[in-house]
Each structure stands twice: as structure tokens, then as C-alpha cells.
Amino acid sequence: MSQELPAAAEGPEDALSSKMALRWGQNRRLEFLDFRLQFEGRFNRSDLTSFFGISTPQATTDISRYIERAPDNAVYDGSTRGYVATTEFKPLFPTNDPSRFLNELLARTTDVLPAEQSFLGWMPSTVTVPSPVRRLEPATVLAVLTAIRRGIQMNVAYQSMSSSEPSVRMVSPHGVAFDGFRWHVRAYCHMRHEFRDFVLARILDVQPTDEPGKSAAEDTAWHQVVSLVLAPNSRLPKSTRRVIELDYAMENGEVVLECRQAVLFYALKRLGLLNADSTNPEEQQIVLRNRAAVMKFLRIKTE
Fold it and tell me: DSSP letter at 91?
């Protein structure tokens, strides 16, 4: 059976903390308790007070509320003065799945997410594969985002791969895309009269205008969704194909990825599916089952 922790009297500092608690919302704090219980197997009152800056009475109320909503998830442990997960534990919040834990772990490990903003308490020893840092000028990024938000055109000095010198052109940006390695700006190029991708790090200068930009609704490739049907390479042994099916969460020997046409090239490149199947199935473990249908949508419009 669960046991309520004793409440304490509320003072001026507690009143201020209560205002902070209202800003976060109790549901957010219950989600935090659910996360800690699932991935660390425990939580106590101090976890709440230190992370959210709330009062002790508020933390007690939150814990009671969590136990009320999920009575079979936790029991009070007098030796640790906290709650521990039961064998019947089931996540109260669908968002608290393993992918969230691993994504936060990656963000913490790469210093993208500060500790005070992450639900992670305990972290396993973690390493990541190193990759070159792509330098981005803060002023450039902010100017591009401002142009997207305002829906205006902008003059950019851009260094493309096809030219030895930067070129100046007018573009109408409407979105950004990440290909797994670098950020792109999706924009209408008024020089080439078409929507193209511009590598954010290659934009050397930005001069916003007051002219309305090209509507994102006209970018058909941005809105067109292409289904990629992935399957294990049929030339692999049956046992190996089964392992690949597990790796990619395949059902009935395949998995379908929904991809916007605008980033189709990057998706196929990252998956190693741009070219026809390799002669070595060990090198090309997955194949594109609907290759003919997909390749009709492949357009390379990167500067």
C-alpha cells in the first residue's frame, strides 16, 4: 500500500514556489514522476522540489495525485523515504517510452539539453560517434528564422558547390530541414524560379526585405509524401533477415517510412538506397521494395 508523505507548513518562499508550480502545471510534474519511476525505478519528494522549484507541500500533493491516478505503479519504501516501482508498473503517460529516454540521453551527452531541463536523473555511461561540427552564425540563423516567421523575401550571399565565388540572390524561405548531418533552408529561388534547398552553413550574409515571400503552399515537393517500403535483402540468410526485421521493427517482412519528397534524396542517401542494390548483400542489408515508384519522385534541388 502507498503511504502519503507528511506535509509541511507553507511560508512566503513556498508561496513563490507555488506560482512557479502553476507555470509548469501539475500534469507536467506527474509526467516527470512517471518518467523517473519507469526508468529509475523510484522517486521521492526532493526530486520534485529540486527539479521544479516547488514547495514541499506541493510536491506531497503531486505525489498523492500520481498515486491516486496510478495506484498499482508504486509503493512507499520507508528505508529510502520514497516510492519504488512495482512489478505491475505501466506508464501513465504514453510519451514516456524508451525512445524518449534515449533521445534525452543523446541530447544530454552532446550538451544540446542542459541537465536542469531534462527528466533524466541517473544516466548510464554513454559515448557517441564523433562528427565534424558545422559552424553556424547566430545572426544568420536568426535572420533566416525571422524571414520565415514574417513570410518575407531576403537577399543572401550564398556559397554553392558549383561556384568558386559566392553569389547574391533573392530567396523566399518557408521552412528548414535536417538531413541527419546538416541543416537546410527550404526556399523559393527567384533566380532559378523554383524551390530549392540551401545549406544553412553556406549562407554568408542575409539582408531581409519587406517584400512578401513566395507562398509555401506552392512548394508541392514539401507537401508531397512518398512511402518507402523497406525490406531485408532477400539474398541474406533467413536468420539474418529476421535480425534485420527486429532492428527496423518490421512486420510481415517490411516497414513503411513516410518521407516528404523535398527530403527524399537525403533519406535515400542516409539509408544507402540511392543506387541499385549492391552485389554484396552484407553491405546492403535493406532494400527498397517499391524502388520504381519512389524514384519517380526523386528530384535533386540542392544548391
Answer: -
Most distant pair of Cα atoms in the chain: their distance: 73
Residue written as grid cell 519507469: 38
Q: Are 233 and 285 spatial neighbours (Cβ–Cβ below 8 Å)? A: yes
How many residues in the chain?
303
pTM for the structure as a whole: 0.76
Taking the C-alpha atoms of residue 264 and residue 270, their distance in angstroms, rounded to an integer, is 10
Nearest C-alpha neighbor of 152 from the set 213, 217, 219: 213
CA–CA dist 11, 20 (Å, integer): 15
- What is residue 19's predicted lDDT score, i.e. its pLDDT? 45
Residue written as cell 550571399?
157
DSSP code of 6? P
From 109, 91, 70, 83, select the one nearest 5 (Cα to Cα).
83
Confidence of residue 262 (pLDDT cuts 50, 70, 90): very high
202 closest CA partner among 213, 187, 212: 187
**Residue 299 pLDDT grade (very low, low, confident, very high; cuts 50, 70, 90):** confident
CA 80 to chain centre: 35
Q: Interhelix angle for 26-40 vs 56-69, to 10°? A: 70
Model confidence at 131, pLDDT cuts 50, 70, 90, reads: confident
> DSSP state, 215?
P
- Its sign, for the CA torsion 41, 45, 48, 51, is negative
- The set of residues, in sequence order, having a beta carbon less than 8 Å from that of 3 and lying 6+ positions away, is 76, 78
Cβ 285 vs Cβ 236: under 8 Å: yes
